[in-house]
Design goal:
binds beta-D-fucopyranose, alpha/beta, 9-stranded mixed beta sheet, about 425 residues, 11 strands, globular, about 40% helix, TIM Barrel
Length: about 425
């Protein structure tokens, strides 16, 4: 049974999340080319060479989609804005249709009583900026702040909250070290630079928004519980390295003005000159902190260059992503983030959910959501200042390199007709979140 609204502290907020490239359809409305279009156009990078050209056609169907969010009983809708839709060249002249779209969308949320929780960047880097080195180029901090400013000049007055960048780990490590996401690099130097510049851009965007007088600004990082594959000292050290790269690098940059020693072991020769001087910008005041949580990983030591580890399969039941279902990890991260980094700052679970093949009778998703919400509630009962939970995702969408086959939605989307059909999980949450 899914914990009910009344089981949580007064004022606790529920919601659903999506992102622009995954749902809007970047072929529409004058959006510029993004590095995801280029990545997907390169054979072997995405399942079936699928891209976000049409996605869920949310660009045209946004009213129906906002009705679905409202029908869920959600308080908050976490959405993202596409840099390439607003600035097709990444800089310079804005696309009026793009700004109009986000303007309508935000008004549509307000008209339905939904709090607009914006993420400025959920991975659709304009191709002209990728040509200049993208996240490897320090100037991206300036370009990104300009984008934040142009966008917020139009919609900033009506946003409930803003996070500059979704999941810096994916922007940095997954995309430049593992090569699984655009731009598909496997290069340690590119990774170190991208990871530092992502944080710098986070800081400059926050400065730009504060200068406009905006409030309720935060950050969203993803977390994965790193468990040693065995209790050997080698595997334990390997899992500490994984934890430092995944779970500590970004939040320590933002809140402690430095990077973990375990990461500097690998990154020191590659970080851009003068990186130590950037923490005043990176460490901008935060009003809240968001955690995306899905799974745990088993980490084993491996010979070879830093970081010297590999992921090995674990024993727990898995989602259609092959990710182990490990709800306690969500409780543990909420408690750990508050204890080690953010203190009394409001925390939000900004993403959590599962890919499933079970279609509209998705009892497995209901069980996943129930188990994770119970862990959020446990953290809240212990006094961790967690103030909301937003599930991933409103509807089945473009799951990046895995294409459209991985289905995270509370609402099924027919790929041909684009018809939306709420699943059992949608109805179960709507019941639990009723006021
Ligand atoms: C997160 C991303 C989101 C989606 C889910 C499954 O890492 O933020 O776009 O891909 O995973």
């Amino acid at each position: 049974m899914i914990p009910q609204r009344q089981d949580f502290p007064n004022g606790f907020l529920f919601g659903a999340a999506t992102s622009s490239y995954q749902i809007e359809g970047h072929a529409f409305g004058g959006a510029g080319r993004t590095h995801w279009d280029d990545f997907a156009a390169t054979p072997g990078n995405t399942a079936g060479a699928e891209d976000g050209a049409v996605a869920c056609d949310h660009y045209h169907r946004w009213e129906e989609d906002l009705d679905l969010v409202a029908g869920l009983g959600a308080d908050v809708y976490r959405f993202s804005t596409s840099w390439a839709r607003v600035l097709p060249e990444g800089r310079g002249t804005p696309n009026p249709e793009g700004l109009d779209f986000y303007d309508r969308l935000v008004d549509g949320m307000l008209a339905r009583g939904l709090k607009p929780a914006a993420t400025l960047y959920h991975w659709e880097l304009p191709s002209p900026l990728a040509d200049l080195g993208g996240w490897r180029n320090r100037d991206i901090a300036k370009w990104f702040a300009e984008f934040a400013d142009v966008l917020c000049a139009r919609i900033g007055d009506r946003l409930w909250s803003v996070a500059p960048i979704n999941e810096p780990w994916c922007v940095g490590w997954l995309s430049h070290f593992e090569g699984h996401h655009a731009p598909g690099l496997r290069d340690i130097r590119a990774t170190a630079r991208a990871m530092h510049h992502v944080l710098l851009a986070h800081g400059t965007a926050l400065q730009a928004m504060r200068a406009r007088g905006m409030e309720n600004l935060g950050a969203v990082c993803n977390f994965e519980l790193a468990l040693p594959a065995t209790d050997s000292p080698e595997d334990e050290a390997a899992s500490r390295r994984y934890d430092a790269i995944f779970n500590r690098f970004f939040i320590e940059g933002m809140t402690r003005g430095g990077y973990p020693a375990e990461v500097l072991e690998g990154f020191a020769p590659h970080l851009p000159q003068g990186w130590e001087e950037d923490f005043t910008t990176i460490g901008q005041k935060l009003d809240w902190f968001g955690l995306n949580y899905y799974t745990c990983k088993r980490i084993a030591a491996r010979p070879g260059p830093w970081p010297g580890y590999a992921e090995v399969p674990g024993p727990l039941p898995k989602t259609d992503m092959g990710w182990e279902i490990c709800p306690e990890g969500l409780h543990d991260f909420l408690a750990r983030v508050a204890r080690d980094y953010t203190g009394a700052l409001p925390l939000y679970v900004t993403e959590n959910g599962m890919a499933s093949t079970s279609g509209v009778q998705d009892d497995d998703r209901i069980a996943y959501l129930a188990a994770h919400l119970a862990e959020v509630r446990r953290a809240a009962d212990e006094g961790v200042p967690v103030k909301g939970y937003f599930t991933w995702s409103l509807m089945d969408n473009y799951e990046w390199a895995l294409g459209y086959a991985k289905r995270f939605g509370l609402v099924a989307v027919d790929r041909d007709s684009q018809a939306r059909q709420p699943k059992a999980s949608y109805h179960a949450l709507a019941k639990a979140w009723a006021r």
